[in-house]
Amino acid sequence: MSEKFKKQFGVWLNSNHAIVVGRVNGGNGEFIVIAEEKGEGSASNSSENTANNADRASQMKFFKEITSHMQNVDELHLTGTGVAQEQFMHYLAATPQYKNTVTKLSTSNEMSKESLVEFISEKFV
User: Fold this and answer.
1) What pLDDT is stored for residue 42 in this prediction?
2) What is the CATH number of the domain that holds 87?
3) Residue burial 72-109, b: 16+ Cβ < 10 Å; e: rest
């Protein structure tokens, strides 16, 4: 009988930068950095409405790039600065593929990739 491993990921994120940490071998290995994504800055617009729409579209694209590295997530720990992780959590809840993902939040300052891997490893002991 084979044991089912949970797919666990950690993401450090702010409004324009994300680091995705996941397990080697899909669920039974050590955590490693599997991706790093940078969001696009928005161009200046003459209309506040147009600028807002461009910002939201840019954010959705950024979130899709992050989730492309996390397929079939069982557990996710989000950390970072500002409100970006909360917005990302709402995005996941509204996406059918991720609606059953157990998500936990914490706030942390930017850290080195090695420190992030250690931090996420401690969250999934």
Assistant:
1) 64
2) 3.30.420.60
3) ebeebbbbbeeebbeebbebbeeeeebeebebeeeeee
